[in-house]
Automatic annotation (TrEMBL):
It comes from Metarhizobium album. Belongs to the binding-protein-dependent transport system permease family. FecCD subfamily. It is found in: Cell membrane. Signal peptide: none annotated. This is Iron ABC transporter permease. GO terms for cellular component: plasma membrane.
Length: 354
């Protein structure tokens, strides 16, 4: 490893195998990791019960905590922090991958219909079999998202299709599936309809260690996928034709990226419900913090997504305690506000340059 300068003059670290990492991306990743730790500490102490990091450390050291404190820390807050971070990580990573495939910063699992495909199959399963086990729900979510992904590839003509064609077709499919979901909400029994509407709003209220144990292998697999597929996203950012001219096997890598994004988004939908607009918010905010490409862009986007979900849940619990406030509301209050601020600062920066 040795310090060097990239073609644009930015400081980088070059490794013997040819890997190159921008120093600015490393500093941004470190700042985001510190932010995640600090936010988790704040979140641990947020809620109606007076318990936080100190009580957690004392509990780990063997000092007994009160029943209320132990329940708040180990049953409510820690599972919500861990599950929220992993779900946000997954959706943001999926969004960053889809934006590379489509070459459109607005692409995310929701806009392309992948999340809606997962939600529709879950809703159908819950209507037909309300007592379906969690594994069946997860399989249904993946099947629905994968079905939409394969339909998109077929409808737009496979690897020769443009990113715009994929995006437009995804919007059309998402609209149709949203109509199906609306019909289910309207014509199912009231108690089923209310349960479906509550789940569709997104919530970490049911986060528990069993669900975290199920989700954790996918989270760690996403780290491997990020490293292996990061280079392919750099090529797809240039467009399918140029990517093929550079030797990127678009016929294989595009479906692989799409299926991996489906797996991430469907798992998050199963765990916490839909996280609307997060796949757009997180990569955009990460790009504002530190412009990056390839693996660095995926990693920074995923980190930002995890932080946004934990921040949204912390805000919800700070406002009204441990009630099941939809996570989507917190994401709107925090994420969209930061998104607007970032766009405004970018506009001011461009005006100053001109």
């Amino acid at each position: 490893m040795r310090p060097a300068r990239a073609t644009d003059g930015k400081a980088v670290l070059r490794f013997s195998g040819g890997l190159e990492i921008r120093v600015g991306n490393l500093l941004s990743a470190a700042a985001l990791l510190v932010t995640a730790v600090l936010l988790a500490t704040v979140s641990l102490g947020s809620g109606a019960t007076d318990a936080g990091l100190l009580q957690l450390l004392q509990s780990i050291a063997g000092e007994p905590a009160s029943a209320d404190q132990a329940y708040a820390l180990w049953t409510v807050r820690l599972p919500r922090i861990v599950m929220g971070f992993m779900a946000g990580w997954a959706v943001a990573l999926a969004g960053a991958m889809l934006q590379s495939i489509t070459r459109n910063p607005l692409a995310d699992p929701g806009l392309l219909g992948l999340s809606q495909g997962s939600m529709t199959t879950i809703m159908l399963l819950l209507v037909l079999a309300p007592a379906a086990p969690k594994l069946a729900i997860a399989v249904a979510a993946f099947a629905g998202g994968l079905g939409v992904a394969l339909a998109l590839l077929w409808l737009v003509g496979g690897e020769r299709a443009s990113g715009l064609a994929i995006l437009l077709m995804g919007i059309a499919v998402e609209t149709v599936l949203s109509s199906v979901g609306s019909l289910l909400l309207l014509y199912t029994p009231p108690e089923t309809s209310l349960a479906l509407a509550d789940w569709m709003a997104g919530s970490l209220f049911q986060a528990n260690w069993s669900a975290i144990g199920t989700f954790a292998p996918l989270f760690f697999a996403s780290l491997l996928g990020l490293f292996l597929l990061g280079r392919a996203t750099s090529a797809h950012d240039l467009g399918a034709e140029l990517a093929m001219s550079l030797g990127e096997p678009v016929r294989r890598s595009r479906p692989l990226l799409l299926i991996f994004a489906v797996l991430l988004s469907s798992s998050a939908v199963t765990a916490v419900g839909p996280l609307t607009f997060l796949g757009v918010l997180a990569p955009r905010l990460a790009g504002f913090l530190s412009p990056a490409s390839g693996r660095a862009r995926l990693f920074l986007s995923a980190l930002t997504g995890g932080i946004l979900v934990v921040a949204a849940d912390t805000l919800a619990r700070s406002m009204i305690g441990d009630l099941p406030l939809p996570i989507g509301l917190g994401l709107t209050l925090i994420g969209v506000s930061l998104f607007i601020l970032a766009l405004r600062l970018q506009a001011l920066r461009r005006l100053q340059l001109h």
